[in-house]
Amino acid sequence: MKRLRVLLAGLGVAALLVGFVVWRVDRPQRRLTAHFTEAVGVFVGSDVRVLGVRVGEVTAVVPQGSTVRVDMRYDADVDIPADAQVVIVPPSVVSDRYVQLTPGYTDGAVLADGADLPTSRTVVPLEIDDVYQALNDLSQALGPNGANASGALSDLVATARANLQGNGEALHDTIGGLSDALSTVADGRNDLFDTLGNLADLTSALAASDQQVRDFNARLADVGSQLAAERDDLAAAVRTLGTALNDIRTFLDENREALVSNVDGLADITGVLVSQQQALMEVLDVAPLALSNLALSYNPSSGTLDTRDDVMGPYDPASYACSLMVDVVPVQQIPQTCFDLARLLDKRGLALTDQLRKLLGAAAGSTGTGSGATGVTDAPDGTLGGILKGGQ
User: What CA–CA distance (Å, rounded) separates 58 from 36?
Assistant: First the structure.
């Protein structure tokens, strides 16, 4: 019974293996050929991977002169970039290597089925024998039959030892300072790059304005030549200026109090001018017109000024006289004629002084003042003569 179970299990595993092989054979695949300078550790059946995931296998490894042709096949549903490379990857010291297609596909053109990649698109790992050979070549190049044939390398090592002996702390501080400096430069790299960009812009602007810069330099050279030709005159002018400044200093020392007093007085004058700024502006505005009118009023035939007095303004002599009385005597002593005049002017809508308006207000509270007359005459005499007669 136990043997039967083992036999059945073996048959089941065999069936699974056969099914897997059939599935792998029937699954659509693409072919790829790559040429390597060498293919150590790559055999038929070695994995073909993308990003470490097995997608196919090596089907043939054939030497061809100085290169090795490696045929591969991989799953058709795996897209490979058209510019992909083929790399032999050694996962460990043991020669169990696989072929990697890199990089992984993201977008763009896809590698065609049956593509043939030259050695420029393949990479092989560095073998341990190559590393040992490189170290051996280096040691021989630096040995007694190479760079140290005359003892130069030994002298270099001895000199470096002598110079570094006892300077470990200084060397440590130097390296630390250099590290800090590089850190500072790294922290300010944006500003540094901006400065370099600005310098590039400046040099570009200067290059674009090359002719103008040349003209400026030429004119500057001309100015320098002219100053050099007149250096004696410039020296004499500087000496004279020195003498003048010395005289000015002596004058200031001798007249210090007077200058202080004059400056104080000038401050008072300027203060008055500032306080009367508006009046001065009005004078400056009106004075030219007044002088022009004065020149035009001169009568050369009679040698006089032809003017018209307008002291009373728009008011007649009677209004002027009554207005004067209102300002100098009590209202009770003003003649009735002035009250009548104020009423008449107001009735006819003529110009009234403030004093006559005051009389109108006083007349509104009484029927008469002064001489005891009442009422308003129909046609009062508003002239100076009428006013005088009415006062009699």
Answer: 13
